[in-house]
Structures are given as structure tokens and as C-alpha cells.
Design a protein that fits this description.
Elements: H1 5-14, E1 31-33, E2 38-40, E3 44-50, H2 57-69, E4 74-76, H3 94-107, E5 110-114, H4 121-127, E6 130-133, H5 141-148, E7 154-157, H6 164-176, E8 182-186, H7 204-211, E9 216-218, H8 220-224, H9 227-239, E10 244-248, H10 266-282, E11 286-287
């Protein structure tokens, strides 16, 4: 008996290496973040901003209040930092998570923060609204399995030398584990060029739109590694269809302990939001902004 095309397609899909992540005609996944269910995906353009690392109560709260006043709904900040040198600041750990939770309480912002090990997943998930997997951990399969076994959304950054298929297979670990809420992030890949930190790969945005139903955001801060390039890279990425961006922003970048030279101040952040607003509208999408009543 001859098999129908539908049967053959179903068989192929069942054997596909990233069978849950693959587009296969599926509609865009929209990941809903935190208590206020901030949407990432579809026609939404989402903003995540904040310092590279949680450094202390005062700077974090000041930065969070300023960003939330501009309508930024999600706050980033590392409590566990994967540093190249073991002698560099490693983050405040659980104290940093508590400060992030305090910032959420004060502003209503959802919290995005990195988790480094499978053992830390329950701790970080207790405080965070989105668990971030950094570029160095994209292929840490035990970590991805642990994230698949819990229900908080996962922000999965592309490995600095990972192919697009490897990124999608990494996402597949989380999806196959039972967690459908994965957000992909292009943050630049290694190249021979020393003037920028990484080579931002704009190709992946339209390509991933074909290959997967998952939302794709960008991190121009870690791609460029220089604050003066972040605005243009973000605008280009949103024009190409990115579902949002994660930006390093600080009330005083010169004083930032980590990544200050690629971090935007609040004026630059406001200019960025104004620019992205126009690009999102010009491409038939919407930059989501909620101006909240901020607790004193
Ligand atoms: C970060 O966003 O804090 C970070 C360390 O980024 P990446 O993993 O992309 O280097
Ligand atoms: Mn950083």
C-alpha cells in the first residue's frame, strides 16, 4: 500500500533532530513571562534591560526604577556570573537573587537572570521569571535537561561558536524535557575581528523564523561589546524581525563592575526605545511598553 504525503511528513517529523522546535507549519510560540504575562514572540517586540551583574541594592533599584519609568517590563542582571578569569567578580549569588526579587516587588518588572549549573536551577527558579543560559553553557546538556524539567521560561543564548542547528538542538533538550517556553537569543559569534567583541549574525533572525516557531531575541550589547554600536545593531535586528532585545543598561555605566564599556546609560536607553518604537511600527509590530505606577 502506498503511503500518503501526510504520513511521510509525519514520519519525517517524528525522526527530526529538533522535532519539537522545528517550524513544521506551526504558529509562532508566544512565551508569557512573569506575573504580568509579558509576551515574547509573534508580533510583539519585547524589551529586557539592566546591568550586566547585580552589584548592590542601591544601583540595582535606581536602574530598575529608571528603566521601568521608560516602560521596560523586564529587568536583567546576573547574580551568578560566568567570568573568563576565576579572579574576576563572580556575582552576589543568592543575595543578588534577593535584590532582583526586591526590584520586581518595587517596580513590577519581571526578572531575567542566568543559571550556571543544574544544581542551581531550583534556587534561581525560586526568584527568577526567566532563567538565562549563557553562551558558555549552550551545550551543557545536563543544565538544559534540568531546565526542561521545570516550568519557568528559558532564555537560551547561542553558543559563541555554535551552528544554528546546534542552537536548535539545544532548545530541543528543554522542549523535549517538557518545558515549551524557550526564547532563543543571538548574541554574536567569534570572529577574527578584534574591534568588536563578537560578530553579530543578522542572518539568523530571518533564518530562524523559517526553521522554528520559537521567539528569537537579540543581545546587541554582548555582540558589539561597545556602547556606541548598540543602537544601530538593535535597530537593524528589530527591522529584520527580532522579537525583542536584551540590553545592558546602568544608571552609571562608568561605575559598572562588569561590562561597563558596552552598557547604555539612561539617556541612550531612552533614545533606543524611541528608535525601536518607530522600527517596530514600520514593520507592523508593536514595542510593548507598560508605564507602571512605581512604588515609592
Ligand atoms: C550575560 O548576558 O550576562 C552574558 C554573560 O552573556 P553571554 O552569555 O551572551 O556572554
Ligand atoms: Mn555582560
Amino acid at each position: 500500500m502506498t503511503r500518503s504525503t501526510d504520513d511521510l511528513n509525519a514520519e519525517l517529523l517524528a525522526r527530526h533532530p529538533y522535532r519539537n522546535a522545528v517550524r513544521a507549519g506551526r504558529p509562532d510560540t508566544i512565551v508569557l513571562v512573569g506575573e504580568h504575562r509579558v509576551p515574547i514572540g509573534g508580533t510583539h517586540v519585547a524589551m529586557i534591560a539592566g546591568p550586566c551583574a547585580v552589584e548592590g541594592r542601591e544601583t540595582l533599584l535606581e536602574t530598575a526604577h529608571a528603566l521601568s519609568g521608560m516602560g521596560v517590563q523586564m529587568l536583567r542582571g546576573g547574580a551568578f556570573k560566568p567570568r573568563t578569569s576565576p579572579h574576576s567578580f563572580q556575582g552576589l549569588g543568592e543575595e543578588g537573587l534577593q535584590l532582583l526579587a526586591e526590584a520586581r516587588e518595587a517596580t513590577g518588572m519581571a526578572i531575567v537572570t542566568e543559571v550556571l549549573t543544574p544544581e542551581d536551577v531550583p534556587l534561581v527558579a525560586r526568584y527568577a521569571d526567566v532563567l538565562q543560559v549563557g553562551t558558555r553553557n549552550m551545550a551543557n546538556y545536563r543544565l538544559l535537561e534540568a531546565l526542561g524539567a521545570q516550568d519557568k521560561p528559558v532564555l537560551l543564548k547561542r553558543g559563541m561558536a555554535a551552528t544554528i542547528e546546534e542552537l536548535l538542538c539545544a532548545a530541543e533538550y528543554v522542549l523535549a524535557g517538557g518545558n515549551p517556553n524557550v526564547i532563543l537569543c543571538e548574541r554574536g559569534i567569534r570572529s577574527f575581528e578584534p574591534m568588536v567583541r563578537n560578530a553579530f549574525d543578522l542572518n539568523v533572525i530571518p533564518l530562524l523564523d523559517q526553521l522554528t516557531h520559537l521567539p528569537v531575541i537579540v543581545d546587541p550589547s554582548h555582540a558589539a561589546g561597545r556602547a556606541d554600536l548598540v543602537h544601530a545593531v538593535t535597530m537593524g535586528a528589530v527591522a529584520a524581525g527580532a522579537h525583542g532585545f536584551i540590553i545592558e543598561a546602568h544608571e552609571n555605566p562608568l561605575a559598572a563592575i562588569v561590562d561597563g564599556s558596552q552598557t547604555l546609560d539612561m539617556e541612550a536607553m531612552q533614545r533606543l526605545i524611541t528608535g525601536v518604537d518607530a522600527i517596530a511600527a514600520a514593520t507592523g509590530r508593536q514595542l510593548d511598553r507598560t508605564i507602571r505606577t512605581v512604588a515609592a
